Amino acid sequence: MVVGKMKFTFQKRVKLAQGLWLLSWLATLGGAVTFTLGCFLKTELRRRGEVMDNTDIHCVPNTLMIVGLASMGINYFASRICQDALDPGRFPRWKTFLKPYFGCSVFFTTLMLISVILSYAMKGSLETSLKIGLKNGIRFYKDTDTPGRCFQKQTIDHLQMEFQCCGNNDYKDWFEVQWISNRYLDFSSKEVKDCIKSNVDGRYLVDGVPFSCCNPSSPRPCIQYKITNNTAHYNYDHQTEELNIFIRGCREALVNYYMGLMNTIGAVVLSVFLLQSSVLASVRLLQTSMEAVAGQENVEIETEGYLLEKGVKETFMEYVDPVLKLLLLNQVTPPEAKPEAGATGTTTTTS
Amino acid sequence: MVLLKIKFPFQKRVRLAQGLWLLSWVAMFSGAITFAMGVFLKTELHRRSEVMHSMDIHIVPNLLMAVGLASVGINICAGKVCQDSLDPSRFPRWKTFLPPFFCFSVFITSLLLVAMILSFALQPSLEESLKIGLKNGIRFYKDTDTPGRCFQKETIDRLQIEFQCCGNTNYRDWFEVQWISNRYLDFTSKEVKDRVRSNVDGRYLLDGVPFSCCNPASPRPCIQYSLLDNSAHYNYEYQSEELNLYNRGCRQALVNYYMGLMNTIGPCVLFDFLLQMTILVSLRYLQTAMEGVIGQENVEIETEGYILEKGVKETLLETKEKMKKILQFAQVGDASAVTPDTQPDAEKPATA
């Protein structure tokens, strides 16, 4: 049961080859764009790598980079094949190369589609990673004298200012953590002693946030400390105050940013995928229609081209069987086969 | 006395024309780049225009944009001229066009040099403009309810955060200005009343700065208020504290930024200027060399090319005389329209 059978006159074959050559150059450009987008996404993820707990999400840009490079190679060969296609003298040398070429190409093209799906599927993993990373960042904010954690303060400050966000879920995350180091607390003062005695762990907790949470759009100078105490500040009501500090949490801000990036990249990669598929289909049709011409005297006859000689399942098994045989070779050969082979060998020599 | 005479055999003329054609394309790109850099500089100056008092510095990007566009046109013409130059039948039509073209091109190209000189010469003007602009910005920081000034706070805050600077000259500029609006001051409290009474104008002055002066690189949480009072904060000494706030003043930060931009643009503009002058000189040589060929039967003779037929002084005098004649002709034309009597006198000798 042949899949995708089409008749090809000589003129149609020529036009197919020419169109394919142009398309393959476009697809090479598409592959280069995919590679660049993968690099860009990886750079952006690495820039905020300090507030991410794991690097699972990096599989998306890694896949994009591999697929981009592979598609450039695939399309380069596609253009070479269609350059040789119209010359019956030069075309046969590609014969043995084409089967593995198609196998690889279909594999990498499917990988392209998978990377787009992954970029949506990994949103949950990214969110969890950011949740843990930001929680640690806020916890170690005060440890500017501990090696390995001394840059957390600067990282979190720059993050909050750049993404206009405060805390993990919102600004209240800062109330549950001691973010002022003990080095700057006067333990002889009454206020500090009261605050520390008021909770079990002996931490200095305040209803205040760092300066990087302050919103420049606020009409009044920033209120950082005693945020929930209306009487501490003149003409202030913390329930109705919206512009004083950033209301958004940094986790939400970062997830939105990366999802926006991946949505844009996903759209571009999807169009490259469609381009790549059409290139592969055209190469296949060109190959099958040229195979009928090989050996004929009259080059300008009408031939048939098809996508698959057998059905989809049978073709898939055809490709997978050699790979399996290669893997099975490592297994021990059955002992009956050996003396039989030896017996047949001796019988042939004697007869 | 001919200026810079060079002999041009046929092959040399051909190569000159070909080289000039290529060079004119390169110079066209270069002119487009100059235009783009002018646009970029203008955009950057415009972004911070709220803290600049005068627009004098904008003459530099304006010049760059005008010269960039003009040089694209000049180089297109140069390319066309040298395409026609090797064909003696097509070359004469450029004859009347070329002298004014050269004058115009030399003028435009010298404007490039003027732009470069201006970019250094106007630095004091830029600094003065920023000084006044920032002073006003800091003064009107608290007026977030006054129309026309309500965005000063946000502008100054974002400026200080982005350029990592504080105040005009340094952070102490904030001590001399009331930057907290009266709407947020409790005039019944003792502290506010004391402060307001302590100075002549009745302003609420304090030794504190806005949050946008805070340096994220500081190891301790930001100290914004009571900056000069060592006892107000534990383990704090303002004389030795360096990382708490930004040390730099915003005027210096902005001047450094813009001077850095113009220092980067300068060499590109210089390169464009040299390229353009080379093209003009080559085109002049080509023109004068081809003028020797016009009317000759054998096109492949050797001719001479020069920059100026006579010396510099004589050429200038000649040009002056030409301009005078053109002006006089315009005047005489007016005079003859007023007095028609002279015409019959001219006709009489003809009939007689």
Automatic annotation (TrEMBL), chain A:
Membrane topology per record: Multi-pass membrane protein
InterPro entries: Peripherin/rom-1, Peripherin/rom-1_CS, Peripherin_LEL, Tetraspanin/Peripherin, Tetraspanin_EC2_sf
An annotated GO BP: visual perception
UniProt keyword list: Membrane, Transmembrane, Transmembrane helix
Top-rank lineage group of the source organism: Eukaryota
Main location: membrane
One cellular-component annotation, GO: plasma membrane
Transmembrane segments: 20-41, 62-78, 98-121, 255-275
Alphabetized SUPFAM superfamilies for the sequence: Tetraspanin (SSF48652)
Protein localization: Membrane
Family annotation (PANTHER family): PERIPHERIN-2, TETRASPANIN
Protein name: RDS/peripherin-like protein xRDS35
Gene: LOC109086862
UniProtKB/TrEMBL annotation, chain B:
Ranges that cross the membrane: 20-41, 62-81, 101-122
Principal cellular location given in the protein's record: membrane
Bilayer topology term: Multi-pass membrane protein
Record flagged with keyword Hydrolase: no
Keywords: Membrane, Transmembrane, Transmembrane helix
InterPro entries given in the database record: Peripherin/rom-1, Peripherin/rom-1_CS, Peripherin_LEL, Tetraspanin/Peripherin, Tetraspanin_EC2_sf
A GO BP entry: visual perception
Pfam families hit by this protein: Tetraspanin (PF00335)
GO CC, any one term: plasma membrane
Keyword Transmembrane listed: yes
Gene3D superfamilies, per the entry: Tetraspanin
Subcellular location(s) of the protein: Membrane
Entry similarity comment: Belongs to the PRPH2/ROM1 family.
Protein name: Retinal outer segment membrane protein 1b
Provenance organism: Cyprinus carpio carpio
